[in-house]
Amino acid sequence: MASLSLRQVTVRFPTASEPALDEVDLEVPHGHFTVVCGPERSGKSTLLRVAGGQEEASSGSVWIGGEDVTARSAQDRGAVLVMQHYALYPHLSVQENMAFALRVAGVAETELQERVRYAAEVLGLTEALDLHPDQITGPQRQQVALARAMVRRPTVLLMDDPLVALSPELVDATAELIGTLARHLDVTTLMACTDPAPVRAAADTLWTLDHGRLHPGTNDHREDRP
Ligand SMILES: Nc1ncnc2c1ncn2[C@@H]1O[C@H](COP(=O)(O)OP(=O)(O)OP(=O)(O)O)[C@@H](O)[C@H]1O
Protein backbone atom coordinates (compact mmCIF):
# COMPACT_ATOMS: atom_id res chain seq x y z
CA MET A 1 0.00 0.00 0.00
CA ALA A 2 1.63 3.22 -1.13
CA SER A 3 -0.11 6.22 0.27
CA LEU A 4 1.63 9.59 -0.10
CA SER A 5 1.86 12.01 2.81
CA LEU A 6 3.37 15.43 3.15
CA ARG A 7 3.70 16.52 6.75
CA GLN A 8 4.21 20.14 7.68
CA VAL A 9 6.20 20.75 4.49
CA THR A 10 7.61 24.23 4.06
CA VAL A 11 9.78 25.33 1.14
CA ARG A 12 11.58 28.67 1.22
CA PHE A 13 13.60 29.85 -1.75
CA PRO A 14 16.39 32.22 -0.75
CA THR A 15 15.32 34.86 -3.26
CA ALA A 16 11.61 34.88 -2.34
CA SER A 17 9.95 36.96 0.37
CA GLU A 18 7.26 34.36 1.17
CA PRO A 19 7.52 30.56 1.29
CA ALA A 20 6.55 28.65 -1.88
CA LEU A 21 4.94 26.06 0.43
CA ASP A 22 3.80 26.93 3.91
CA GLU A 23 3.35 24.07 6.41
CA VAL A 24 1.53 21.84 3.94
CA ASP A 25 -0.16 18.70 5.27
CA LEU A 26 -1.47 16.42 2.54
CA GLU A 27 -2.55 12.77 2.55
CA VAL A 28 -3.20 10.88 -0.69
CA PRO A 29 -4.51 7.39 0.15
CA HIS A 30 -3.33 4.35 -1.84
CA GLY A 31 -4.86 4.28 -5.34
CA HIS A 32 -6.66 7.58 -4.94
CA PHE A 33 -6.68 10.44 -7.43
CA THR A 34 -6.09 13.72 -5.65
CA VAL A 35 -5.95 17.07 -7.42
CA VAL A 36 -4.42 20.31 -6.17
CA CYS A 37 -5.60 23.40 -8.02
CA GLY A 38 -4.30 26.92 -7.73
CA PRO A 39 -3.38 30.03 -9.67
CA GLU A 40 0.04 30.62 -11.22
CA ARG A 41 2.90 30.75 -8.72
CA SER A 42 0.73 29.32 -5.92
CA GLY A 43 3.26 26.53 -5.34
CA LYS A 44 1.81 23.60 -7.33
CA SER A 45 5.02 22.59 -9.12
CA THR A 46 7.01 22.96 -5.91
CA LEU A 47 4.55 20.65 -4.13
CA LEU A 48 4.93 17.95 -6.79
CA ARG A 49 8.70 18.36 -6.92
CA VAL A 50 9.02 17.99 -3.13
CA ALA A 51 6.82 14.88 -3.23
CA GLY A 52 8.90 13.40 -6.06
CA GLY A 53 12.27 14.29 -4.54
CA GLN A 54 13.29 16.84 -7.21
CA GLU A 55 13.14 19.64 -4.63
CA GLU A 56 14.23 19.58 -1.01
CA ALA A 57 11.85 20.76 1.71
CA SER A 58 13.18 23.44 4.07
CA SER A 59 11.31 21.64 6.83
CA GLY A 60 8.74 18.87 7.16
CA SER A 61 8.71 15.34 5.78
CA VAL A 62 7.48 13.23 2.85
CA TRP A 63 6.16 9.70 3.40
CA ILE A 64 5.43 7.02 0.79
CA GLY A 65 3.90 3.70 1.76
CA GLY A 66 4.32 4.52 5.43
CA GLU A 67 8.07 5.17 5.10
CA ASP A 68 9.82 8.47 5.58
CA VAL A 69 11.42 9.12 2.16
CA THR A 70 12.46 12.72 2.85
CA ALA A 71 16.16 11.90 2.61
CA ARG A 72 15.78 9.58 -0.40
CA SER A 73 16.67 10.59 -3.95
CA ALA A 74 13.96 10.88 -6.61
CA GLN A 75 15.08 7.55 -8.11
CA ASP A 76 14.67 5.75 -4.81
CA ARG A 77 11.12 6.86 -4.03
CA GLY A 78 9.08 4.86 -6.56
CA ALA A 79 7.39 8.10 -7.65
CA VAL A 80 7.32 9.35 -11.23
CA LEU A 81 6.84 13.03 -12.04
CA VAL A 82 5.33 14.06 -15.37
CA MET A 83 6.42 17.64 -15.79
CA GLN A 84 4.41 20.33 -17.54
CA HIS A 85 7.19 20.94 -20.02
CA TYR A 86 7.98 17.32 -20.77
CA ALA A 87 10.21 16.46 -23.70
CA LEU A 88 9.83 13.45 -25.96
CA TYR A 89 12.86 12.08 -27.80
CA PRO A 90 12.34 13.47 -31.34
CA HIS A 91 14.38 10.74 -33.06
CA LEU A 92 12.43 7.88 -31.45
CA SER A 93 8.99 6.60 -32.42
CA VAL A 94 6.08 6.91 -29.99
CA GLN A 95 6.55 3.25 -29.13
CA GLU A 96 10.25 3.71 -28.42
CA ASN A 97 9.59 6.85 -26.38
CA MET A 98 7.21 4.84 -24.23
CA ALA A 99 9.62 1.92 -23.90
CA PHE A 100 12.79 3.95 -23.27
CA ALA A 101 12.81 3.99 -19.45
CA LEU A 102 11.83 0.34 -19.34
CA ARG A 103 14.76 -0.62 -21.58
CA VAL A 104 17.13 1.36 -19.37
CA ALA A 105 15.69 -0.45 -16.33
CA GLY A 106 16.27 -3.82 -18.06
CA VAL A 107 12.61 -4.88 -18.26
CA ALA A 108 12.25 -8.05 -20.38
CA GLU A 109 11.15 -7.48 -23.99
CA THR A 110 7.81 -9.34 -23.78
CA GLU A 111 6.84 -7.56 -20.56
CA LEU A 112 7.92 -4.24 -22.08
CA GLN A 113 5.85 -4.79 -25.26
CA GLU A 114 2.82 -5.78 -23.19
CA ARG A 115 2.99 -2.68 -21.01
CA VAL A 116 3.43 -0.39 -24.05
CA ARG A 117 0.57 -2.08 -25.91
CA TYR A 118 -1.77 -1.77 -22.91
CA ALA A 119 -0.94 1.88 -22.25
CA ALA A 120 -1.32 2.73 -25.95
CA GLU A 121 -4.68 1.01 -26.04
CA VAL A 122 -6.16 2.78 -23.02
CA LEU A 123 -4.81 6.14 -24.11
CA GLY A 124 -5.91 5.73 -27.73
CA LEU A 125 -2.37 5.79 -29.10
CA THR A 126 -2.26 2.42 -30.87
CA GLU A 127 -2.37 3.96 -34.37
CA ALA A 128 0.41 6.38 -33.47
CA LEU A 129 2.91 3.85 -32.12
CA ASP A 130 5.17 3.87 -35.20
CA LEU A 131 5.03 7.63 -35.73
CA HIS A 132 7.57 10.15 -34.48
CA PRO A 133 6.69 13.04 -32.13
CA ASP A 134 6.69 15.58 -34.98
CA GLN A 135 4.09 13.49 -36.83
CA ILE A 136 1.48 13.56 -34.04
CA THR A 137 -0.65 16.35 -32.56
CA GLY A 138 0.15 18.35 -29.41
CA PRO A 139 -2.56 16.56 -27.39
CA GLN A 140 -1.23 13.20 -28.60
CA ARG A 141 2.26 14.18 -27.45
CA GLN A 142 0.79 14.95 -24.03
CA GLN A 143 -0.84 11.51 -24.00
CA VAL A 144 2.53 9.93 -24.87
CA ALA A 145 4.10 11.73 -21.89
CA LEU A 146 1.39 10.25 -19.68
CA ALA A 147 1.77 6.79 -21.25
CA ARG A 148 5.53 6.94 -20.75
CA ALA A 149 4.95 7.43 -17.01
CA MET A 150 2.22 4.78 -16.85
CA VAL A 151 4.31 2.00 -18.36
CA ARG A 152 6.81 2.42 -15.54
CA ARG A 153 4.05 1.30 -13.15
CA PRO A 154 4.96 3.84 -10.50
CA THR A 155 3.57 3.45 -7.01
CA VAL A 156 3.04 7.21 -6.95
CA LEU A 157 2.31 9.26 -10.06
CA LEU A 158 2.78 13.04 -9.88
CA MET A 159 1.46 15.13 -12.76
CA ASP A 160 1.94 18.83 -13.35
CA ASP A 161 -1.11 20.13 -15.22
CA PRO A 162 -1.32 17.43 -17.91
CA LEU A 163 -4.60 18.91 -19.16
CA VAL A 164 -3.21 22.31 -20.05
CA ALA A 165 -2.20 21.53 -23.65
CA LEU A 166 -5.28 19.45 -24.49
CA SER A 167 -8.19 20.48 -26.67
CA PRO A 168 -11.47 21.13 -24.77
CA GLU A 169 -13.02 17.87 -25.99
CA LEU A 170 -10.08 15.85 -24.64
CA VAL A 171 -9.80 17.58 -21.26
CA ASP A 172 -12.76 15.91 -19.50
CA ALA A 173 -12.03 12.50 -21.00
CA THR A 174 -8.37 12.63 -19.97
CA ALA A 175 -9.21 13.73 -16.40
CA GLU A 176 -11.62 10.81 -16.14
CA LEU A 177 -9.06 8.43 -17.63
CA ILE A 178 -6.40 9.46 -15.10
CA GLY A 179 -8.86 8.75 -12.27
CA THR A 180 -9.75 5.37 -13.76
CA LEU A 181 -6.08 4.44 -14.18
CA ALA A 182 -5.32 5.42 -10.58
CA ARG A 183 -8.05 3.09 -9.32
CA HIS A 184 -7.54 0.19 -11.74
CA LEU A 185 -3.75 0.14 -11.63
CA ASP A 186 -3.67 1.09 -7.93
CA VAL A 187 -1.46 4.09 -8.61
CA THR A 188 -1.56 6.77 -5.94
CA THR A 189 -1.98 9.87 -8.11
CA LEU A 190 -1.42 13.54 -7.31
CA MET A 191 -2.08 16.04 -10.05
CA ALA A 192 -1.76 19.83 -10.18
CA CYS A 193 -3.97 22.06 -12.31
CA THR A 194 -5.05 25.66 -12.61
CA ASP A 195 -8.70 25.04 -13.51
CA PRO A 196 -10.67 22.75 -11.15
CA ALA A 197 -13.74 22.52 -13.46
CA PRO A 198 -12.69 19.56 -15.63
CA VAL A 199 -11.37 17.48 -12.72
CA ARG A 200 -14.22 17.98 -10.25
CA ALA A 201 -16.07 14.85 -11.35
CA ALA A 202 -13.00 12.65 -11.80
CA ALA A 203 -10.99 13.45 -8.66
CA ASP A 204 -11.46 11.65 -5.36
CA THR A 205 -10.27 14.68 -3.46
CA LEU A 206 -9.73 18.26 -4.55
CA TRP A 207 -7.53 20.78 -2.74
CA THR A 208 -6.74 24.38 -3.50
CA LEU A 209 -3.36 25.96 -3.08
CA ASP A 210 -3.03 29.67 -2.48
CA HIS A 211 0.27 31.40 -1.72
CA GLY A 212 1.72 28.06 -0.67
CA ARG A 213 -1.11 27.23 1.72
CA LEU A 214 -3.33 24.21 1.16
CA HIS A 215 -7.09 24.40 1.71
CA PRO A 216 -9.69 21.63 1.35
CA GLY A 217 -11.63 21.71 -1.92
CA THR A 218 -15.21 20.65 -2.33
CA ASN A 219 -14.62 17.11 -3.64
CA ASP A 220 -14.34 14.31 -1.21
CA HIS A 221 -15.67 11.02 -2.53
CA ARG A 222 -13.52 8.99 -0.20
CA GLU A 223 -16.52 7.83 1.80
CA ASP A 224 -17.99 6.32 -1.40
CA ARG A 225 -14.92 4.22 -2.05
CA PRO A 226 -14.33 0.73 -0.66
N1 LIG B 1 13.92 27.45 -8.00
C1 LIG B 1 13.26 28.51 -7.54
N2 LIG B 1 13.92 29.57 -7.03
C2 LIG B 1 13.26 30.65 -6.52
N3 LIG B 1 11.92 30.76 -6.51
C3 LIG B 1 11.20 29.74 -7.00
C4 LIG B 1 11.83 28.57 -7.55
N4 LIG B 1 10.84 27.71 -7.96
C5 LIG B 1 9.67 28.32 -7.69
N5 LIG B 1 9.88 29.52 -7.12
C6 LIG B 1 8.85 30.46 -6.65
O1 LIG B 1 7.97 29.74 -5.81
C7 LIG B 1 6.62 30.16 -6.03
C8 LIG B 1 5.78 28.97 -6.41
O2 LIG B 1 6.21 28.53 -7.72
P1 LIG B 1 5.62 27.23 -8.39
O3 LIG B 1 6.31 27.08 -9.72
O4 LIG B 1 5.68 26.10 -7.45
O5 LIG B 1 4.10 27.65 -8.62
P2 LIG B 1 3.03 27.05 -9.62
O6 LIG B 1 1.72 27.15 -8.91
O7 LIG B 1 3.46 25.72 -10.11
O8 LIG B 1 3.06 28.08 -10.82
P3 LIG B 1 2.73 27.84 -12.38
O9 LIG B 1 1.26 27.50 -12.46
O10 LIG B 1 3.05 29.18 -12.97
O11 LIG B 1 3.64 26.75 -12.85
C9 LIG B 1 6.68 31.25 -7.09
O12 LIG B 1 6.68 32.50 -6.46
C10 LIG B 1 7.99 30.99 -7.79
O13 LIG B 1 8.53 32.17 -8.31
From TrEMBL:
Official protein name in the record: ABC transporter
Organism (species): Micrococcus terreus
Cellular component terms per the entry's GO annotation: ATP-binding cassette (ABC) transporter complex, substrate-binding subunit-containing
Pfam families associated with the record: ABC_tran (PF00005)
PROSITE patterns registered for this protein in UniProt: ABC_TRANSPORTER_2
Organism superkingdom: Bacteria
Gene3D superfamilies, A to Z: P-loop containing nucleotide triphosphate hydrolases
Entry's Gene Ontology molecular function annotations: ATP binding; ATP hydrolysis activity
SUPFAM superfamilies documented for this protein: P-loop containing nucleoside triphosphate hydrolases (SSF52540)
